[in-house]
Hints:
- The complex is a heterodimer.
- Chain A is mostly helical.
- Chain A has helices at 6-26, 33-53, 59-89, 94-119, 127-144, 151-154, 160-176.
- Chain A has one domain.
- In chain A, helix 4 (94-119) packs antiparallel against helix 5 (127-144).
- Chain A is globular, with a radius of gyration of 18 Å.
- In chain A, 34% of the residues are buried.
- Residues 178-183 of chain A have low confidence and may be disordered.
- In chain B, helix 1 crosses helix 2 (33-45), helix 3 (56-79) runs antiparallel to helix 4 and helix 5 packs across helix 9 (186-205).
- Chain B is built from 11 helices and 7 strands.
- Chain B is 66% helix and 11% strand.
- Classes of the chains: A mainly alpha, B alpha/beta.
- Chains A and B meet through helix 2, helix 3, helix 5, helix 6 and helix 7 of A and helix 1, strand 2, strand 3, helix 3 and helix 4 of B.
Amino acid sequence: MKHTTAQPIFNYINNMRSDLNGMETEGSIDSSFTIKIDKLDSEFTKMKQYWIDQKEVSVGSAFIFYSAMHNTKLILTKMKERFKNADKTGDNPGVACDSLLIMPIISEVYQKTAQAAEEKQRLNPFLPNEMLKLVSTLRTTARLVRLLPTPDEEVKETDKNQLRKTAVELDKKFVASNLLSDI
Amino acid sequence: MISKVFLDTCVLISASVYGSYKDLGIDIKHEFYTKTVPLFDIIKKHIDKRIGIITFTIEIQAVAVIAKVVAGELEEKVEETSDPELKAKLFESHTVFFDQCLAHLQENLSILQREPVLQTEKDRHYPEVSIMYNSLQDGARNLDINQLINANVTRRYRKTIRHEVYEQYKNRYKQLLNLKSEPVEESDKGILCEVICLLKIYQQTNPSIRMYLASTDYHFSPCNSEGEITKKIKEKFQIICDWPDKVATYLKSDGFT
């Protein structure tokens, strides 16, 4: 994925925000908005893969940006589900108002991830930490506006055996590590 | 009785590192997780009293430690494979676990009071803290269990009970022996300086305040028996260091039931 795609996506997110503003004003959602969510989701999928394949930055840094994209996708999945069921669940126009609150953070996450993709070896050393904070804000806000999936929903698409294995190994690692050295 | 508990980074991590996915039958908890539960229960129950305190340093360290461990483990696993599909699965599973730990951390932080500490104030206490650890380190270096046995056990019994007595002494001086093999880190000294600063501030309005430092780190808390470091910190700075479950017991006797 090349950074040249960043500006059109950034504009696309802004465009989505305008749509949501319109829905809020009209007090009714536009069900075709899910197509836009899908398009953005597919861009973020590419971005996730980009960080898995990335060899010019450390795995540790790549992981932070991958994780940011992963979380953003989780929120978009929940957003799409709520848009699809909005009329049945009385979530019209509630989901548009809630989405409007999360979109600026998604935009910021994308902007920083694109910046990291451009900088690569010249990566600003503070950027991964800034991203960690931003993802935390993203998740907290998403939880407040019911756009964060439950822990069980979050792992729906995850390979269960791999998750179990990782959880066991990480648990051992936390016990074994001399936690505070080199921080 | 007014009591405050400063939570060390390791306690926050122990309380936050767990993964529970009912559908998958996964229920993993940090080795010390259960030791942190009673303390967090009391802090939550008496949230209006602002018992649990941290500083910005602790908050930053906790996130950094979790990220470092998860990313480090992922790095190792990724190096072992050339299979792109497995690599993708590894990134995803590590992210899922990481996100859950961070969510628990946020939950825990939400019931703690984050106190500001001036760097200049912190620096003011550094020499005293450093001198204390240096002197304990000297004590640890000079600690010779064989010499202690020779001085305290009559020659007649030394041979027969040496092994047993050796183990007893080893247990008695575990904290010092630990200091010998693992010297105190600068980050630990910094944490102690922050606790001292906060105690001084609280004492201005509540001279009889009781200050605890909940930690699973042997550089503060005792290992089995009462340790020299713990004793020294209490004597010098009036700060009671102990494991989180023990601190919960102390809080109960202070009236926080």
